[in-house]
Amino acid sequence: MSAIATALKHMRADGMDSDAIVAAVAEMEREMTPGADHAAEKRREWDHEGMRKQRNCALSGGNRWKSGGR
């Protein structure tokens, strides 16, 4: 059983009304997702930045590994 399902079971057993249960579940979902969303967003930013650098390097005809002024 998931954490939210277990919490719902306890909330119903304690006699919480439906509006309070909905609010509690919404709060639990907000607390559970930001870390995952933040990590995925950072990976996307990193991937896009890497692709942008590769594209710019290819368009300029340069070799990013040998562009040290030698």
Gist of the model:
The chain is mostly helical.
The poorly predicted ranges are none
Q: Major β-sheet, in short? A: none
Rg over C-alpha atoms, rounded to the nearest angstrom: 24 Å
**What is the SS-derived class?**
mainly alpha
The shape, in one word, is rod-shaped
β-strand number: 0
Task: Note the total helix count.
Answer: 3
Percent helix range: over 70%
Mean pLDDT: 79
Instruction: Tell me the strand percentage band.
Output: under 5%
Order of helices and strands: HHH
Description:
- There is one protein chain.
- This protein is mainly alpha-helical.
- The protein is built from 3 helices and no strands.
- The protein has helices at 3-13, 18-32, 34-60.
- It is rod-shaped.
Task: Describe the secondary structure blueprint for this structure.
Blueprint: H1 3-13, H2 18-32, H3 34-60
Helix pairs in contact: 1-2
Q: How would you describe this structure in keywords?
A:
70 residues; mainly alpha; 3 helices
